Amino acid sequence: MTLRLIFISGLLCIASALVQAKPFVVGISTWNQYPGSVAGFKESLTLKGLIEGKDVIYIEKSAQADKKKQREISELFKREKVDLVYSLTTSGTVIIKQVLPKSTPIVFSIVTYPADAGLIESMEYSANNLVGTSNYVPEKYFHEIIDGVFPHAKSILIFHRYGEPNSKIQAVNLKRLIKKTGADVKIVSAKSLEDLATKAKKYIKKLQPEVLVTTTDTLMQNGGEEVLIKAAKKSKIAILSSNKTGIESGATLGPVADFKILGNVSGLMAVKILKKSTLPTHMPSKYMQPPLILVNKAALKSTGLTIPEHFKNVRYVD
Fold this sequence. Notes:
Elements: H1 3-21, E1 24-29, H2 35-47, E2 56-61, H3 67-80, E3 84-88, H4 90-99, E4 106-109, E5 130-132, H5 139-149, E6 155-161, H6 165-178, E7 184-190, H7 193-207, E8 211-214, H8 218-235, E9 238-240, H9 244-249, E10 253-256, H10 259-276, E11 292-296, H11 297-303, E12 314-317
Helix pairs in contact: 2-10, 3-4, 5-6, 7-8
């Protein structure tokens, strides 16, 4: 090899090293506070060799469930020309998708119905620059729990956030399935925590339900569960929850998706996009299967209920 070729080869190696040394910039939009999801996402990147501060820089923002702030965050990511965005919740991701250019990969999580919400075409093929994980838990698990734990329930209330599309879809699907147990099922829509507290008190007194059911919407995940737990304790009513944090806070039990695990899976998708230049359309979006059957020991004891022995994947929390 001539000195000229050696010199050129050396320059190319230096240039390549400089290119590789440039860290990826990833925007993280949490919409609200979901630390477990973010921790899971970052953990996967770290395990695959993308070290924070060296190989990847995170721009982490929370809109505190404010649409105007979320749009500002989206515009920030656009100006910074981030290499990828990790976006949480349906409401937050809808705005991210609207603002970010189609050339920017978006990995989502904690989105219950990504296809029905118009974020992707299907779980198998997104047809755009999005891919991610859903916290959807098949309604059949709710039916199994009610059938096994509350076989004699006559009245059941389903609570969800008014005006949130995914929440309404989930509430309607739950009602249709739970009615097969023979119980009378009513959907209660609430616009705020105050509205939720008022309606919970009203319908618990009027209908005397044995079970309250929650959805996976932003109202339930951000204070709504606590409101219902407080209302249910007074009447010793069980709560069948869709949210891990709700059960940890005092709801009785429920089939749940672990946000950290979903974050891990979303993180692995991000790694493929960043390190291998894999397009979102070349990866399927995923659910957590099977879900955990999470049970709050104290809440279970206070209602005098028992968990059938044939239930699998059961985990207890104090």
